[in-house]
Design a protein that fits this description.
Layout: E1 16-17, E2 20-21, E3 23-24, H1 35-48, H2 58-77, E4 86-89, H3 92-107, E5 113-117, H4 126-135, E6 138-142, H5 152-158, E7 163-169, H6 181-190, E8 194-198, H7 210-213, E9 217-221, E10 232-236, H8 238-242, E11 254-257, E12 262-264, H9 278-294, H10 296-314, E13 320-323, E14 335-340, H11 345-354, E15 357-358, E16 360-362, H12 367-373, E17 378-382, H13 389-405
Parallel strand pairs: 3-15, 5-6, 5-7, 7-8, 8-9
Antiparallel strand pairs: 1-2, 4-10, 9-10, 11-12, 13-14, 14-17, 16-17
The chain binds pyridoxal-5'-phosphate.
Pyridoxal-5'-phosphate (PLP) is lined by residues 29, 91-93, 121, 123-124, 169, 173, 198, 200-201, 221.
Length: 410
Amino acid sequence: MNDATFLKDFPIFSHQVGEKRLVYLDNAATNQHPACVLEAMDTYYRRWNANPHRGVYRLSSESTKLYEGARQAVADFIHSKSSDCIVFTRNTTESLNLLSWTYARMVLQKGDEIVIPVSEHHSNMVPWQQACKATGASLVFLYPDSDGIYSEEEIEKKISSRTKIVSFALVGNVLGLGLPAEKLIKKAHSVGAIVIADCAQSIGHTPLDVSDLDVDFAAFSGHKMFGPMGIGVLYGKWELLEAMPPFLTGGDMIEYVQEQESSFAPIPQRFEAGTPDVAAAVGLQAAIEYIKKIGYKTLREVEAEVTTYALERLSKFPWIKMYGKPLTGERKFPIITFTVEGIHPHDVASILDEDGISIRAGHHCAQPLMHFLQVPATCRVSFSIYNTKADIDALVVGLLHARRVFGYEH
Ligand SMILES: Cc1ncc(COP(=O)(O)O)c(C=O)c1O
């Protein structure tokens, strides 16, 4: 195996960006798709497309089988005890909103608290601000040290008997650091709070075992694990989902409808109003099979090699400032956030784009973290299984190019 072994699985890399080779370094935003995922979705539409759960004809029951098969594949993949605990949504954001509009509004009262780290993506922050406004509860923040590490003292201090919900990303999308999940979960449960794990950034890199971790809810998106956009997952413990009212209402989620009243379907259908994206569910199942075939161990090894190489090369330049503790190994995921002295991150990203290199620049949907770090915007590069050391070399050449454009010698 060399570091380009997996590149050939991804058709997008056979295309150029203008005259240039595509160097895609924005995997924390979304992954590219292996051919097997594209083919699974294509086959669905060519052979099996019909509305699931509704028709008695064969095509509809095949579509239902594929959709429910994908649900079972997700349940097995994350070690959920039952596929009834897997709700398909559009993405992580919708999964978290579902909880904000149902669970949170159902349990929260004035005086209660929701605790989240300040490094959270807006998707795991704004829904809780809204739930607090609606219920009179308060949003309490955990703050890290200047390297982005959350201490045990901070967790002990902020999670208290007032805490009803603790929601955090297993891996942060800006600094690429794993959060102290076990400590947060243990402390939250010791005060009777429920735990929501935002697995958007972790699911593409490391296994999720919801039973072993003992989280109450977990949310992730298909497109950050080689699957299609438009499909997300909400896992919930059976008894919690079962007690929750519906989120969106209409077709497919009802049991019986009268003129003035309706009763609702059992979980998970109760939370899946309207025609679902069956092709995306099928694509997600193919992505799961792809990850299983490679194995998370290999995935992590390939990504760690590229990340370590990138950290080494970027740290040679005094005009690059990297954010977050540059840990490698278990706690460091393949995300590097940095600024280039004298050049705005948007200019860096635009100049790199001329060289065929896609990186992210801005606040990364984490404005409170940027405020905490006292930096308005940064550059972010993030890697996946198809990135190579040649990509990092191209990045370095591109950064030197950007420096020259802005009048620096190097
Ligand atoms: C940690 C984290 N949570 C939530 C999200 C939102 O994901 P989506 O846009 O797929 O809903 C992201 C997206 O980057 C993320 O990184």
